Amino acid sequence: MADYTPEELKGLQEKSLEMAVYFVDFCKKHDLLCYFCGGGAIGALRHQGFIPWDDDLDFFMPRKDYERLVRLWRKEADTKKYVLMKSNRRYVDRNLFLTIRDRRTTLIKPYQKDLNLCHGVALDVLPLDGYPDSKWARKKQVAWALI
Q1: Which of 56, 90, 104, 138 minimizes the number of CB atoms within 10 Å of its CB?
Q2: How large is the C-alpha radius of gyration of the chain?
Q3: Rounded to a whole number, what is the largest CA-CA distance in the chain?
Q4: Which of the 8 DSSP states describes residue 94?
């Protein structure tokens, strides 16, 4: 986490909350399951809001819904405000998950400062994959995850 003034951190948290409300509403409208994870979940329970020093929000989403989100976002979301970014063979943003970024803001992550991408405030959306019953299928899944 970067060093922010109290005012900067409060503004960042407010923007993250605004984005989260839009994201959750979008998911509800399209019957996509999502829920807080990480610091957002801890903050909601322990602090009834953000962890006082936390600067972002993260969501989990089952893989099936995660893949649907990617397809739906480009057609249905307000892409003038929010862009969905996901690495693929032609585009790498150095994340192993997708991010939704606010086009109207700037927050450059140190590990992305040399990339030509939207550097807006981001929500992280991490896919949840099931764990196969078969020992062989589990080994294969772990091997692919490492790749």
Answers
A1: 90
A2: 16
A3: 52
A4: S
